[in-house]
Amino acid sequence: HAEFVSSVSHEMKTPLASIKAYVELLADGDAEDEATRDEFLNVINGQAERLRRLIDNLLNIARIEAGVVQVAKEEQSLNDVLEEAFQVVQPAAEQKSIQFVSEFSPLFLGVLIDRDMILQAAINLLSNAVKYTPDAGSVTIRSRTSDDCVVFEVEDTGVGLAPEDAQRVFDKFYRVKKDQSMAPGTGLGLPLAKHIVEDVHGGTLSVESAEGSGSTFRVSIPTTKRT
User: Which whole-number Å values give the CA distances from 126 to 15, 35, 166, in the listed order?
Assistant: First the structure.
C-alpha cells in the first residue's frame, strides 16, 4: 500500500527532524542557560514520545493482523486509566489553547481490561479530538456507568464528520479528505482503538457527529460482575 508507506514515512520524518535540530542546537552550545536546555530537552522528549506512539500503533496493527496479540486482562479502575491518558495528551491540548476537561464518575468503575491496550485506545481518541479541534476549542472526557457497562466518551468542538465519513472513520487508513491539512496522520488511531475495544474487550466504539459542530466518540465496556 504505497500511499500508506508514504504517509507513515512522512509521520516519522517530522519528529525525527525536530529531534535532530534540537540535538544540534544543544551540541553547538546554543542553550546557554539551564532553562533553555530544559526547554530543548522537553521538545526532544515530546517528539521522541510522538515517534514511540506511532511505532506502537504500527506494531499493534501488525500484531492484530497477524493474530498474535497477547492480552493480559486484569481488574482495573477505568478512571485511573483514563486519568493517565488525560495526562499524556494534556500538553498537546495546552499547545492549542484547548480547554481540556475531565468529568470522571465519582464511582469506582471496575473493568476487566488489558490496561495498556485500553490506555492506548483512550490516548488515540483524545489525541484525535485535539488534532481536529481548532485552537481555543474544547475537548471533554467523561466516564459513567450504564446498565451492565461502563462508558467513557470523548467529546470535542472540532470540525465534525459528514455522515459518510462517520461511517468510514474506523476503516484502516481512511482519512477524511477535507481535514487532511489540519493534522498529518496515518489513519491508524481510530481503527486500532475500535479493534481494542470491540474485538479484544467485547465492547463497542461508536461516533456521533455533525459536520462543523464536533464529535462524540463513545466507548462501552462490559463491567466486571461482582459475585
Answer: 20, 30, 17
> Over the stretch 57-68, which tens digit does the pLDDT of each residue have?
778 777 776 777
pLDDT at position 227 is 37
Asked whether the CA dihedral 186, 197, 208, 141 is positive or negative, the reply is negative
Helices and strands counted in the chain (H then E):
6, 7
- Would you say 93 and 139 are in contact if contact means Cβ atoms under 8 Å apart? yes
Of the candidates 103, 104, 100, 109, the residue with the CA atom closest to the CA atom of residue 127: 100
Give per-residue pLDDT as tens, 75-104: 999 999 999 999 999 989 999 999 999 999
Distance CA 118, CA 81 (A): 8
Contacting residues for 9 by C-beta, under 8 A, at least 6 apart: none
What the block records as the C-alpha cell of 154 is 470523548
Q: Residue 136 contacts by C-beta under 8 Å, 6 or more apart in sequence?
A: 96, 97, 98, 99
Residue 226: is its pLDDT beyond 60? no
Give the residues across from 173 on adjacent strands.
none
Residues sharing a CB contact under 8 Å with residue 21, sequence separation 6 or more, in sequence order: none
* Contact indicator for 125, 196 with CB cutoff of 8 Å: no
Angle, CA 12 vertex, CA 118 and CA 1 arms, to 5°: 85
pTM of the shown model? 0.76
Dihedral over Cα of 123, 208, 160, 174: its sign: positive
